[in-house]
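In response to a reviewer's request, we include the raw inputs and outputs for one of the modeled complexes. The two entities were modeled together in a single run.
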Amino acid sequence: MVLDRWYAQLKNSDTLFNSLTDEQLKKEFAPGRNRGIYLLGHLIAVHDDMMVLLNFGDKLYPELNEPFIKQPDKATKNIPTAKELRTYWTRQNEIMTAKINAVTTDEWFTKHTAVSEGDFAKEPHRNRLNIMITRTSHLSYHLGQLTLLKP
Amino acid sequence: MVLDRWYAQLKNSDTLFNSLTDEQLKKEFAPGRNRGIYLLGHLIAVHDDMMVLLNFGDKLYPELNEPFIKQPDKATKNIPTAKELRTYWTRQNEIMTAKINAVTTDEWFTKHTAVSEGDFAKEPHRNRLNIMITRTSHLSYHLGQLTLLKP
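The model returned the following structure tokens for the whole complex.
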């Protein structure tokens, strides 16, 4: 059910991104707020962090951490194009989906990589499934904003 | 973990609503979009539906279905005040929290009230826990919009 929700929100995001032109993605979703392109980069960077937390391997796009997580929108002009970010997004989802599908039920309840064995023994909810739950929430939050880019 | 996420997003919503004046709540979160007061009423109406789906009893505020789910914002002037909606929100959360806390782990995996026994046998994910998962997603989505009301 948790994974269903993740995939459903990824699909909703895909549908939305595909309905928007690059020009529309470059607009702010509301006056003075983040641009669509920033939120797209932000989501890729946050999902890249999940790759590490879920023990799936290295980040695919570590260079996105600085401009899309550490820095706010418009702090630098040195970011990938909308077209490039779309490609990253699609490739990342393909790779993550393959990794997610290979995780067994029991493995979802094992610890994520940012919690120590000692802390995990006391707080067993800090597991890999919880990463999916909190990041689906994060995706939904920004999806509520990205939808404002639709004319 | 699912319930933790629900409570965390309710708490985030509470913090946000408490930081906003009634005047701010009456504004659109972006030009031409829904007013904060509409989204507050919408959330109460959707959570009231959960009361029925989760077999917790009758809706607390059935009169909110028409103006906050069936109708779009500004379709009618006949809606409760911001002050009244804040009271409904708080009371609803208190009542729902008590009901949620009384549900056992096994009961979360029993069917919700909108699915038949026959369909549930084929689709066991249509259970009460899934209602929590999808509605947390819904709450997160609108929270991403409500946060734009902050000056």
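As requested, we also summarize the result in words. Helices of chain B lie at 2-19, 22-25, 36-53, 65-70, 82-101, 105-108, 117-122, 128-146. Chain B has a mean pLDDT of 97.
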